[in-house]
Specification:
single chain, mainly beta, two-stranded antiparallel sheet, Pectate Lyase C-like
């Protein structure tokens, strides 16, 4: 086996009742034994397939290999001479099976929308209908499944559909005028406990890259997501209605939220986001769905380099709920338009539907921000006030930032804070300390690739 695991171990077990994080003890994943070894028969030239190869699907042999594998083993996709690509329509990973993509190999998603139809003609259009596309890779009722390897999975969201004039991303832009872009997501795991993503590179998803929902136990370790910032609705990793989640040692740049915690029915809880690097995107987000509740979230040792938003909690009274016990610790943000945004009226469609957002016990520790921007801390109203603590939060040049606050209770200190939040119904307690915070010079690193 050519892919060897490292020896780093990350312990994220809950140590006291007040620590917000994944309740599991999480160690670096290990590549399982191989049950089937598949060799590529297609070749990418400049990142693209030859036109004649666009119909040479590997879907059937991929699915057969996955279905024939024994639990606890992997199907390995390998190069063969100059052949370095597999072309697939929708596939599913069964219980206990790992899809393993070797370094130098690309699993390419077909551009034929008919392969993804949930109903005839339902994919590859803009419509007001419910979601109409299958995911490229589905994990459904399949605990202990995984996607691993040092290769690439490419959704080709910016390439024109077969026999068409628009791309998946073009459909997303057309949907701005109304309707829903009916496009595939790249990886969707549903009702599948203990799902793992390890060392893979994901590119150019037509829509969200990774969605994990309605389950417990999700580990993302050394994931790379590499998608242009103008690709609309291409979230990086979206946990929804899930618990016990760790995202670590990962590099994410994309066109929407780098990570979005979606607290819909069932909510999201006990999640650790630690030792990661985010670049282009809409930042480390919670929401906009929070009506199922979001609690016990730890974001630590994170650099955000050039995102539109940095640390963001967003919701509104049509989809809001309680977000509480969220801690941001040892964070570096630079060149973000909105480094910190706590927004209870995000894209509010009106009228109110009695799903009022309320943010409590939101804590910022050792957060360093440079490059200017807008900081907004806005509770919904006097009955749904926002409570937050600023314990060591520093702006490089405070006079270059716009600050907005309302309906908020702010606690300062004991660490230094070099700005003050004021506004309608804003109260403050505590005294910030003096001094400065450590430099961010070692936190910002180039985007890591395997090429």
């Amino acid at each position: 086996m050519r892919i060897q695991p490292h020896c780093i171990v990350l312990i994220v077990a809950m140590t006291t009742a007040c620590v917000a994080q994944d309740r599991r003890t999480v160690a670096e994943p290990v590549i399982p034994p191989i049950c089937t070894f598949l060799q590529a028969s297609l070749t990418l030239h400049g990142g693209a397939l030859d036109a004649a190869d666009e119909v040479k699907l590997d879907t059937s042999r991929l699915q057969h290999a996955l279905d024939s594998c024994r639990a606890g083993h992997a199907v390995e996709l390998a190069a063969s001479g100059t052949a370095n690509a597999f072309l697939t329509g929708p596939i599913s990973v069964p219980e206990g099976i790992t899809l393993l993509v070797d370094r130098g190999v690309t699993l390419v998603a077909s551009r034929d929308p008919r392969l993804y139809d949930l109903h005839p003609g339902s994919c590859g259009v803009v419509s007001d209908q419910p979601p109409g596309c299958k995911a490229v890779i589905s994990i459904t009722n399949a605990p202990h499944a995984a996607v691993m390897g040092d290769g690439v999975i490419d959704g080709r969201g910016g390439d024109k559909l077969l026999n068409g004039t628009v791309s998946w991303w073009d459909l997303a832009e057309k949907a701005r005028a109304g309707g829903r872009q009916q496009v595939p997501r790249l990886i969707v795991a549903d009702d599948s406990n203990d799902f793992t993503i390890y060392r893979i590179t994901l590119r150019n998803s037509p829509n969200f890259h990774v969605v994990f929902g309605h389950a417990h136990g999700f580990t993302v370790w050394n994931l790379k997501i590499d998608t242009p910032r103008k690709a609309r609705n291409t979230d990086g990793v979206d946990p929804t209605s899930a618990q016990d989640i760790t995202i670590t040692h990962s590099f994410i740049r994309t066109g929407d939220d780098n990570v979005a915690i979606k607290g819909s029915k069932g909510g999201v809880a006990y999640m650790t986001v630690i030792a990661n690097h985010f670049y282009d995107g809409h930042g480390m987000s919670i929401g906009s769905e929070t009506f199922g509740g979001v609690h016990d979230i730890l974001v630590q040792d994170l650099s955000l380099d050039g995102p539109d938003n940095g640390l963001r909690i967003k919701s509104n009274p049509s989809r809001g709920g309680l977000v509480t016990n969220v801690k941001y610790r040892n964070i570096c943000i630079r060149n973000s338009k909105q480094p910190i945004v706590l927004d209870t009226n995000y894209n509010n469609p009106g009228p109110y539907t009695n799903r009022d957002p309320e943010y409590r016990n939101i804590r910022f520790e050792n957060v360093r921000i440079s490059g200017g921007g807008h900081l907004a801390v806005q509770g919904l109203d006097a009955q749904h006030r926002l409570s937050l603590a600023l314990d060591g939060v520093m702006l490089d040049n405070p006079q270059t930032y716009q600050l907005a606050a309302s309906h908020a209770s702010v606690t300062y200190g004991p660490g230094p804070v070099n700005f003050t939040l004021t506004g309608n119904d804003v109260t403050a307690v505590g005294t910030p300390g003096s001094g400065t915070l450590a430099s961010c010079s070692e936190m910002f690193v180039p985007f890591e690739t395997h090429e």
